[in-house]
Amino acid sequence: MSSAHPGGTRRGIKLAAALFLAAVLQAAFADSVKIWGGRPDLLLTTALVGAMFCGEGAAALLGFSAALLHASLAAPPHAGVGSILVSRTLVCFGIGCMEDRLYRDSVLVALLVVLLGTLSAECLFFVFYPQHNVLNWAECCCSPWPGTRCSPRRATMRCGDAGH
Known about the structure:
- By secondary structure, the chain is mainly α.
- The chain is built from seven helices and no strands.
- Helix 1 packs parallel to helix 3 (about 55-75), helix 2 runs parallel beside helix 4 and helix 2 (about 40-50) packs across helix 5.
- The longest helix is centred in the last third of the chain and has 22 residues, at about 105-130.
- The chain is globular.
- It starts with 7 loop residues before the first helix and ends in an 8-residue tail after the last helix.
């Protein structure tokens, strides 16, 4: 007897086709679309929604596949490809672990899964591939003088360098 999930092959083909379509749309249109200053990540969204309908192993494979496609489309050299792979795989695995606990027929649940999954994936990406300019950004945002802009000189200035 086979231990495969009934309809698992068809589901896998549908999910692979959905990922491929998301990759094509991501490459063709996503860079030109801006929503509130951000660009959509169609591959991650597709993987997160697809992971709701898979077990943990299939969801992890879906997340890994989406991350691999994303990295091949968008990641320049030395841009944390491994971090993209790990973060997306872990988040989709986590959603796959909750497969039996999620009410999948609700659009609100799907939106919540995509929102929290995207936040989790981006936070994990940041943990695994920290951005070196974040401290400069934090210094500018947390300036004791509200309304002042941070210049590149101030961002690289040390405490003893004031005025020089």
